Recover the amino acids of this structure.
């Protein structure tokens, strides 16, 4: 079985979206399946989709069978280190924001490459030398005069990634969107359970862990100057997408006059969130209180009033 990086519209973890980008097709000769076949595939359970994709040799970058051989360059393209890397957070609107960045004419975002490269995720216990750095660079083809990058939300939570990113892309600009951690927990847990995860202690603990932002951000600040990191707030992006997007474009060195046709198209929405017992929600807010306080100290431009859990937790 050839282990290529191709998947259908809804991947093993249900990452659905525009077929040729969020749908995670990573093969230059991929053929769009008929509408009926796509609909039938989406109607299957996540576990069945995963099994079928793996039997066909299709793996996502976050799965063990993925082939990290860089894609072939297209006419006029060159490859090199990413110009920007989004590092978090899960269920913080990163697919939506990446699509808005990719819409800019000054950005190369090849439709056969998923926004989440996940390349650096796999080196927690593996060697990472010049050959691995060069391979990473190969995943960023671009047209002349444009920039390119990735957005892998897991990078914020993986302790080893900051050092590897500083080694492989020291000049990259970093992007992160933070969201009220209790709301992020609800959205993240809802998504995991909808994709077939069991409601076990480990699933809940992982969802909770993703909301501790400050320690992970401090780790990145040890390797990257603060002016190379743009920390956005999901709630601000939702309230003022045009203004926040213009700021993002400026941070990336792009013309901020560009406006995508739609600023509010939902990408990978979790749907109706799992109910959270009020007392459990208060406990979570109190658990996150010190971390939230540090986040607002590190990044004073963030609006504390937009996070209900900051008020509930006494941060």
């Amino acid at each position: 079985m050839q282990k290529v990086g191709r998947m259908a519209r809804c991947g093993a973890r249900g990452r659905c979206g525009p077929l040729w980008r969020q749908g995670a097709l990573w093969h230059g000769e991929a053929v769009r399946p008929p509408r009926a076949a796509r609909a039938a595939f989406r109607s299957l359970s996540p576990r069945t989709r995963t099994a079928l994709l793996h039997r066909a040799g299709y793996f996502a970058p976050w799965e063990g069978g993925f082939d990290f051989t860089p894609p072939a360059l297209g006419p006029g393209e060159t490859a090199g280190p990413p110009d920007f890397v989004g590092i978090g957070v899960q269920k913080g609107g990163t697919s939506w924001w990446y699509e808005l960045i990719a819409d800019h004419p000054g950005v190369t975002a090849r439709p056969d490459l998923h926004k989440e490269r996940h390349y650096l995720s796999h080196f927690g216990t593996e060697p990472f030398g010049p050959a691995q750095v060069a391979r990473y660079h190969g995943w960023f083809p671009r047209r002349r005069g444009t920039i390119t990058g990735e957005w892998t939300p897991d990078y914020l939570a993986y302790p080893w990634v900051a050092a590897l990113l500083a080694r492989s892309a020291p000049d990259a600009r970093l992007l992160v969107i933070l969201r009220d951690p209790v709301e992020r927990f609800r959205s993240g847990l809802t998504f995991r359970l909808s994709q077939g995860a069991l409601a076990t202690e480990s699933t809940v603990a992982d969802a909770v862990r993703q909301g501790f932002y400050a320690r992970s951000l401090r780790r990145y600040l040890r390797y990257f100057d603060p002016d190379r990191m743009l920390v956005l707030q999901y709630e601000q992006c939702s309230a003022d997408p045009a203004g926040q997007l213009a700021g993002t474009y400026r941070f990336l060195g792009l013309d901020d006059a560009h406006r995508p046709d739609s600023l509010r198209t939902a990408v990978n929405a979790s749907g109706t969130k799992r109910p959270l017992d009020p007392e459990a929600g208060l406990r979570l807010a109190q658990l996150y209180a010190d971390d939230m306080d540090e986040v607002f100290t590190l990044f004073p431009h963030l609006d504390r009033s937009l996070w209900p859990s900051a008020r509930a937790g006494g941060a």
Q: What stands out?
A: Residues 1-29 have pLDDT under 50 and may be disordered. The CA atoms of residues 289 and 315 lie 5 Å apart. The first strand starts at residue 78 and ends at 79.
